[in-house]
Amino acid sequence: MKKSILIALLTLAGASSFAQEFKVKKGEVLLDGKPIAKMSAKVLRQYEISNLDGTNTITAYMRVCENPAPGKAYIEIANEEKKANDLDFAKYSPFNVDRSIIQTLFAKGMITENGIQLEQVNTFLNGEPTGLGEKYGCKQQSAEKAITDALALTIDDNGNVFSKKEKIGYIRMITNNGTTSGAVEKYEVTNLDYKVIGTWYGKFGMVQGYSKALNQEIYTYDGKVFKVEFNNGGNFIGYKMSQDVTAMNIIKKLTGNGYSLGHK
Q1: Distance of alpha carbon 61 from alpha carbon 212, whole angstroms
Q2: CA 71, chain centre distance (Å)
Q3: Where are the domains of the chain?
Q4: Angle, alpha carbons 189-262-159 (nearest 5°)
Q5: What's the pLDDT tens digit per position in 121-131?
């Protein structure tokens, strides 16, 4: 009899843990009707979440993979220092994206009835990158192309980068022997203030703070990694930076993913 009562109590406890109701109403996150956090979306698919007093703000981006996994969605979580990592939805509804994000954060202990759990958030952000965007093939090629087409990007033979004929930055190629005839080791992209925005590594590139070797990948100043395959097309007779397909693809990948050049 006692055993039956114990089983019944455990069953009820388990059921109640899944019976919690989340709502997002008038900019507040409600758990069983009680406000526990603030949430707003001033930009499409970008959600700012904080404690009720406005502290411990984090940003949740809804990412949607278009090719080759159409409709695959995941969350990118970032803190105020722009440190980010990807997270699968615990439960996803395209009609209630904000609630789906909150349910996922709650399931991971990043938000509780006491608000944002910043220590838990930072543990996740500082952990091993999950790389869901790469895993799901979420290259967002159409969105990137629309952005880069609008920028009308060009590169001259000196490595100056232009948008609509206005100089916005620089790119330089580094080879194993210091000449254009050598094997390409990396490309370095800087803004007009010579701040490095991203570095592309050809093979076995190592960066302090990143545990994996970079192979035909860009490593950005804020720790993001983007794949750009080497392409030696365009330079059939001699080398010209203005005809370097890889260099242009690196610039397009950075600008297409929100990395602006120019002056900061």
Answers
A1: 25
A2: 17
A3: 20-135, 141-256
A4: 40
A5: 999 999 999 98
